[in-house]
Design a protein that fits this description.
Blueprint (H helix, E strand, L loop, with lengths): L1 H10 L2 H26 L8 H13 L6 H4 L16 E2 L5 H4 L7 H14 L16 H7 L3 E2 L15 H5 L6 H14 L5 H6 L5 H7 L6 H7 L1
Parallel strand pairs: 1-2
């Protein structure tokens, strides 16, 4: 059979012989490439390392996040021996939040990151602003989480740049711009009372961001 194929090949025109040889080379290269690709390790999807770290952290604290305790009503949260009596939300790290019912590694990380952006929590209700944290979970942990007074950062335009003020979650570009326009006219930044009198911020922004502004601590005590 091989001799017959060789004889038939020799009878082909030179151009046809070259085309057949080229096709044979391409087939061999394709087969060799497939063999090489199969020997390579499978690609690692992006974010795999972060997922494995969160999974490891979750498994470490799985014994304090069992399903029966997650279903406890708010008034019985303190009675579980596995859940701490008090979690100081402005001092703890993400691992310290995992014993709380309904809080896994992802939510714990978001709570800490949002705390850093705010400059600290001043009200327990602010946890409800964390992306993905259900109101039901907030009610379950309300009796356990403690917001320590005096630990929240204070917004001080005199010592902060425009960009630093703009990083605060409660302030928009226009809110920060209004402070600097007031300074350009008056030669100083406004007080909270002047912000309200001059309608520089909406009432909702004053109620939220005002707690972090200079003088906001007194307003918080008054409430």
């Amino acid at each position: 059979m091989f001799r017959k194929a060789k004889r038939e090949f020799s009878l082909l025109a030179r151009g046809e012989q070259g085309a057949i040889l080229l096709l044979a080379v391409l087939v061999l290269m394709f087969l060799g490439g497939r063999s090489h690709l199969r020997s390579l390790p499978p690609p690692v999807p992006p974010g795999t390392d972060e997922f494995l770290q969160e999974l490891s952290l979750y498994q470490e604290f799985l014994h304090v996040a069992s399903e029966p305790e997650r279903l406890l009503p708010p008034q019985q949260v303190r009675r579980s021996p596995r859940i701490p009596d008090t979690v100081y939300i402005n001092r703890t790290d993400s691992a310290g939040l995992l014993p709380l019912p309904g809080i896994g590694p992802v939510l714990a990380g978001r709570i800490i990151r949002y705390r850093d952006l705010l400059g600290g929590y001043v009200r327990i209700e602010q946890l409800g602003e964390v992306y993905g944290l259900p109101q039901e979970t907030l009610e379950r942990i309300r009796s356990v989480v403690c917001v320590e007074p005096g630990l929240a950062g204070r917004l001080d335009p005199d010592s902060m740049t425009f960009r630093e003020l703009l990083r605060h979650p409660y302030l928009s570009y226009e809110d920060v711009s209004s402070l600097f326009r007031f300074r350009d006219v008056k030669g100083r930044f406004p007080t909270l009372a002047e912000i309200r009198e001059n309608n520089l911020w909406s009432d909702s922004i004053i109620d939220r961001a005002g707690l972090y502004f200079k003088g906001g601590e007194e307003r918080l005590v008054e409430r």
